[in-house]
Amino acid sequence: MNVAVIGAGAMGSLFGALLAEAGNSVCLIDIWAEHVRAINAAGLAIEREGVSRTVPLRATADPGGVGTVDLAIIFVKATHTAAAAETARSLIGEAGLVLTLQNGLGNADTIAEVVAERRVLAGTTAHGATLLGPGRIRHAGEGSTVMGAWSRQPEGSGDARRVAEVFARAGFETVLTEDVRQALWGKLLINVGINAITAVTGIRNGQILDLPATAELSRAAVAEAVAVARARGVTVREDAAEHVLTVAAVTAANRSSMGQDVDNRRLTEIDAINGAVVREARRVGLEAPVNQTLAALVETLQAHYR
Ligand code: NAD
């Protein structure tokens, strides 16, 4: 398959490399010129459990030279999805597809404002990656990648199956779902209960469990999001709040992606995570004061970076 990855940071580079190693024709697109230069000069270096390998890859900062692709994968941070969707539209021609595996709510809707909804696929991934520097990433962990058609009409399911097969052949543990919104909410709940708390306080995921008050804050944020999901007709697991704390324990040593964004003085995805819960709550006549407070704290923090 002919694939473009728009946003070739930690995750985009990783997914692009794994798809290229399986024989797909892949071009990485990123606005970060130094990273693009490093990949073209020496390939992408992937570190995994202390072992490093290099994958030859094509990268560019100019989507104009890429040509038409079968699949554009959007892996920018949620704050840049609208711009990436415009790039995707310019690449997919008459029949191409756009896939988002980003965190947060709203990415697929933003893409579907630019590209016909029947061409949009969405999902989540349990893979983890960290950017180490230009042309260098760490593959931090793996798990299943869930995807499905964004359109509620049956027309998209064949396309989703085709893309899922390409991912499976590239070694991804791939799950095709009929209800991609449920998958996105499931991942959102984990981000809601971990990211902002760790970002504001500077702690690692597992430290959420150190104090009863911190664990209770996580539970309260997740409980609000669960109520919103249910009011919107999305099925979520009964034990969602406890499940989030289990994830925090299993990933105890990790600093959340939002925590890393704050550490590196980058804009966070707060608006697509806790901010989205507040917006979605209002749409269904609920309130989400815990999420509102967490969102306000992270927004304040990122507005005042030195
Ligand atoms: P990242 O910051 O490492 O990479 C994003 C890249 O997008 C950067 O290289 C940036 O230069 C590029 N970019 C920004 N605007 C662009 C544009 N208009 N066109 C092209 N490139 C552009 O982010 P990441 O950690 O790879 O995360 C990407 C998404 O995946 C996020 O939604 C994140 O929440 C999600 N995610 C991340 C992980 C993880 O372990 N890192 C795991 C699961 C999901």
Topology, element by element:
Layout: E1 2-6, H1 10-21, E2 25-29, H2 33-42, E3 44-48, E4 51-55, E5 58-60, E6 71-74, H3 81-91, E7 97-100, H4 107-112, E8 120-125, E9 128-133, E10 136-141, E11 145-149, H5 157-169, E12 174-176, H6 180-201, H7 212-231, H8 240-250, H9 257-263, H10 274-283, H11 289-303
Parallel strand pairs: 1-2, 1-6, 2-5, 3-10, 6-7, 7-8, 11-12
Antiparallel strand pairs: 3-4, 8-11, 9-10
The protein binds nicotinamide-adenine-dinucleotide (NAD).
The site of nicotinamide-adenine-dinucleotide has 27 residues, from helix 1, helix 3 and strand 9.
Main attributes of the structure:
306 residues; alpha/beta; N-(1-d-carboxylethyl)-l-norvaline Dehydrogenase, domain 2; binds nicotinamide-adenine-dinucleotide; 2 domains; 11 helices; eight-stranded mixed beta sheet; four-stranded mixed beta sheet; Rossmann fold; 19% strand; single chain; 12 strands
What structural class do you assign from the helix and strand content?
alpha/beta
The parts where pLDDT drops under 50 for at least 5 residues are none
The CATH superfamily of the largest domain is identified as NAD(P)-binding Rossmann-like Domain
Task: Count the beta strands.
Answer: 12
Give the CATH level 1 class of the largest domain: Alpha Beta
Which architecture of the largest domain does the CATH hierarchy give at level 2?
Answer: 3-Layer(aba) Sandwich
> Helix fraction?
40-55%
Q: What best-fitting shape do the alpha-carbon axes yield?
A: globular
The largest beta-sheet arranges its strands as: 5-2-1-6-7-8-11-12
Q: What would the average pLDDT be, to the nearest integer?
A: 97
Domains counted in the coordinates: how many?
Answer: 2
Binned strand content: 15-25%
Q: For the CA atoms, what is the radius of gyration?
A: 19 Å
Helical stretch tally: 11
What is the CATH topology assignment of the largest domain? Answer: Rossmann fold
Instruction: Output the helix-strand order.
Output: EHEHEEEEHEHEEEEHEHHHHHH
Profile the largest sheet.
8 strands, mixed
What molecules are bound to this protein? nicotinamide-adenine-dinucleotide
Distance between the termini: 44 Å
